[in-house]
What we know:
With 170 residues, the chain is an all-alpha fold. Helices cover 42% and strands 0% of the residues.
Amino acid sequence: MTVIGAAPTTTQGAPGFAPRYRRRLWSVRHARGLAALYRAFERSLRAAAPLVARIGAGRLERPVAAVERRVKGALFDCKMCGQCVLSRTGLSCPTNCPKGLRNGPCGGVRADGACEVVADMPCVWVQAFDGARRIDGAGASIPPLPPVDNRLLGRSSWLAVARDATTAAP
C-alpha cells in the first residue's frame, strides 16, 4: 500500500506518462497561480449573482456550461460533474479517476505514482495532494468530499457558485 506522503511527485516532466495527460500535469504544476486566479474569478461570480438572478440561471445554463466545458476541459480535463471540487483537490479533477473515486486513492497507486488501472496515467489523487501542497504548503490536506450528484452532470458549477452567493460561504 502506498502512503500518500511517500508517493513520488510526478509533475516535473512526468517521464513515463502518456502525452495526453500533459495538461493535467501542467495545471497541478501551476496550481498556486491557477488557484489565485480561480479565487478572483469566484469573487467575480459571486458579485454577478444579482445579474444571474435577473437574467435567470436557466436561460444562462447552456451558454455558460459550454464555455465552462471548454475552459475547464482544456486546463483540467474536466468531465463537467456539475459540482466542481478543483479548488479542494489541488486542481486535479477526481472525475478522471478510472475507478470514480472521489475521496482519495484506492490503495493501488503504483510506486511511480501511476494509476493501477491505467499504467501510463498519473494517479489523480497523487496529483491532487501534490497540487494541494503547491497551494497550501507542506501540511496541506484534502477534506472529505461529498459524493457526486449525477443529476448535475453536464451542468455549470460556475452558475452554481453565482446562484449560491447569498447562501454559501467559501
